[in-house]
Amino acid sequence: MLRTVENQPSPERLLEQFDTTTADDSEPTETGAESQERVEEQALALAQPQTEKQRGDELRYLDGIIKQGEDILGAQCETKFLKLRELVDAAEFQHERLLIFTEHRDTLEHLQHRFEALGYTGQIAAIHGGMDVEERERQRIFFMPLPNAAGKIFQTRTRRAHASCWRRMRRVKASICNLHG
């Protein structure tokens, strides 16, 4: 049951009160509430639907906004994936190994599933921060090139897994430089 608002000041009167007073002007009342709270409650009451029809209209409007946002988000994600797929399928990269970094594990898994659905099953190595050392090493070895290997292999990594790998690579590079330097 929606509540009705009686003895409600006009919206213009409420706006005037908001425009002419500040939080510093609000004083505690006998009940402990600040004097401005009553004005805020009245303003919120005006914003609430008063009938079932208004409530239904508002819910349909909000559903439309949510769907529009989801459609926009989906289109952006799809556009990015299509661009990535275009690069993956480009002739110049047909025999190259690709290393793709993601921020989050769910993005990594999403890309892995999307490329597997396109026929790249068994060609994707994935590393993320939640993997144990042995599985991470198996995935790293899987990604390493074999002599005369043809085809494409992907490796997707989360940023956390990348940071760990990057630190190891810098240590190896520093060791190599020390040997040759």
Structure, described:
There is one protein chain. The radius of gyration is 30 Å and the shape is elongated. Strand 2, helix 5 (133-143) and strand 3 form a beta-alpha-beta unit. It has a 3-stranded parallel sheet with strand order 1-3-2. Helix 1 (11-20) packs across helix 2 (35-47). By secondary structure, it is mainly alpha-helical. The protein has 3 domains: 1-48, no CATH class; 51-89; 96-180, no CATH class. The protein has helices at residues 11-20, 35-47, 52-89, 105-120, 133-143, 159-180, and strands spanning 98-102, 124-127, 154-158. The longest helix has 38 residues, at 52-89.
Brief rundown of the structure:
Helices cover 61% and strands 8% of the residues.
CA-based shape: elongated
Count of discrete alpha- or pi-helical segments spanning 4 or more residues: 6
Count of strand segments: 3
Oligomer: single chain
Distance between the termini: 81 Å
Beta-strand share of residues: 5-15%
Main sheet record: 3 strands, parallel
Whole-angstrom Rg: 30 Å
Order of helices and strands: HHHEHEHEH
Low-confidence stretches: 1-5, 165-181
Strand order across the biggest sheet? 1-3-2
Q: Structural class per helix/strand content? A: mainly alpha
Helical percentage = 55-70%
The domain count comes to: 3
Overall pLDDT score = 75
